[in-house]
Amino acid sequence: MKISICGKGGSGKSTVVTLLALEARDRGYRPVVVDTDESNVVLYRMLGLPQPPVSLVELAGGKKMVRKLMPPKYEPKEPALDTNVLSRERLSLADIPSANVAEKDGVRLITIGKILQPLEGCACPMGVLGREFLARLQLEKDEIVIVDTEAGVEHFGRGVETSIDCVLIVVEPSFESLALAEKVKQLAGGLGLEKIWAVLNKANSDEMVSKLSRQLTQRGIAVIGSVPYDEEIFDACLEGKALAIGNTKAEIKKIFDTIIKGALTETTKAGS
Ligand SMILES: Nc1ncnc2c1ncn2[C@@H]1O[C@H](COP(=O)(O)OP(=O)(O)O)[C@@H](O)[C@H]1O
Ligand SMILES: [Mg+2]
What residue owns the CA closest to ligand 1's atom 23? Predict the structure, then answer.
């Protein structure tokens, strides 16, 4: 199963990614976080890792090599490049060199690539690499990929979600976040995706949860859980420390259960 987590900048995407990965691990799955956000430089810290893995862009040999290794179907591959693992049509996680996969207590992290230099050019090659890598990646039954995306909707334009099973939109209490959720629903639907759910984050009263849920339901988006505002999470984010599920356990468990069940029940169906 491949899950994509998206939403507005600062809404809590990376937080939800981390908490879901920890929950998946605790439930006996082998979660792999795929970081497709070229701007966030601290996801590895949230996962408690001492350093990030070497990015897949570096494994490819740099941004310029990405299109050569992973050309669109109509462009013939240059045979000499077949030695690079990324040029394979089908990949398993075991194929990825250990330098490109960081692991902490059963949670693995793969990073597509980061913008490192001023004037280094756009991040389009990262988009191609993220999309192709996810599409080529074959999972074992107990492996779950959780994709952390960059803020906004550009990743839909890049087609990162073409091989995704389920999209989770993280919504914080703001109109901008609600409006973006509607846009995400539309774009994900346009890719043929049906499992598009919202998770509320940082809504710190029942009234706020009801209000946001109502707004999302009106937009045709089902809410499958609400991660409360949590001081421990806030402090860990402030200090760059590993996140722990802690007080959010019950909600994260509920959200994870719905994802695993993989289908809307009557109670989670928007509008019901
Ligand atoms: N459930 C939460 N409780 C408390 N603070 C949170 C929570 N979720 C996110 N935050 C705060 O919001 C900030 C942004 O979260 P983050 O997951 O990095 O957002 P995104 O990945 O969407 O940009 C964090 O640095 C933290 O301060
Ligand atoms: Mg983030």
Answer: 10
β 30-35/107-111 pair status = parallel
Q: Classify residue 151 by its DSSP letter.
A: S
Cβ atoms of 176 and 8 within 8 Å: the answer is yes
pTM passes above 0.90 = yes
Which helix (DSSP H) or strand (DSSP E) does residue 34 occupy?
strand 30-35
CA of 91 to the centre of ligand 1 (A): 32
Residue type present at position 80: A
Distance 191 CA to ligand 1 centre (A): 28
Per-residue pLDDT reduced to its tens digit, 100-143: 999 999 999 999 997 777 767 777 888 889 989 999 999 999 99
Q: Where do the domains of the chain lie, and which CATH numbers do they carry? A: 2-261 (3.40.50.300)
185 Cβ inside 6 Å of ligand 1: no
Please give the distance of CA 34 from its chain centroid, rounded to a whole number: 6
> What pLDDT, in 10s, does the model give residues 78-93?
655 568 899 898 999 9
